[in-house]
Amino acid sequence: MTMKTEGVHSAEFLLSSEEAQSLDKVTLILGQNLVAGTVLGKITASGKYTQHNNAAADGSEVASAILFDSVDATLADTQVVVVSRLAEVIDAKLIFKSGITAPNRTAAIAALATNHITSRT
Questions:
Q1: Options 2.40.300.10, 3.40.50.150, 2.60.40.1180, 3.40.50.10090; which CATH number does 21-120 get?
Q2: Would you place residue 7 in the very low, low, confident or very high pLDDT band (cuts 50, 70, 90)?
Q3: pTM of the entire predicted model
Q4: In sequence order, what DSSP letters do the residues of 29-82 get, joined into one string?
């Protein structure tokens, strides 16, 4: 019998939200293939989003949203839906850039909290 592995589901990370008020359509910058639950930062110069990177200095070092659904934007900028405010999320289901340290993860969670995105364990 063949074993199948399920991928990440849309909004799997979400506990509760004010659906109409929590979600926004934004542009994800090209060159990324990300799964639902990925923490994003907003690039100040372009207003586009990318995976949160605490080592950056372009605005994306501040966690500001969470990707609602998996998306392949490797070839072009792509319109995506994000959770940007008024939501509760499952901490263990959030996806961060590989190698993020515990203090930087904590800072990202705190930045999301300024948008009323509460992380629950």
A1: 2.40.300.10
A2: confident
A3: 0.90
A4: PSSEEE-TTBEEEE-TTT--EEE--TT-SSSTTSEEEEESS-EEESSS-EEEEE
Tally the residues of the chain. 121
The amino acid at residue 63 is A
Cα–Cα distance measured from residue 19 to residue 22, given in angstroms and rounded to the nearest whole number: 5
Give the phi and the psi of residue 50 in degrees, each rounded to 5. -150, 170
Query: Per-residue pLDDT tens for 78-96?
Result: 999 999 999 999 999 999 9
107 phi and psi, to 5 degrees?
A: -65, -40
More confident residue, 58 or 19: 58
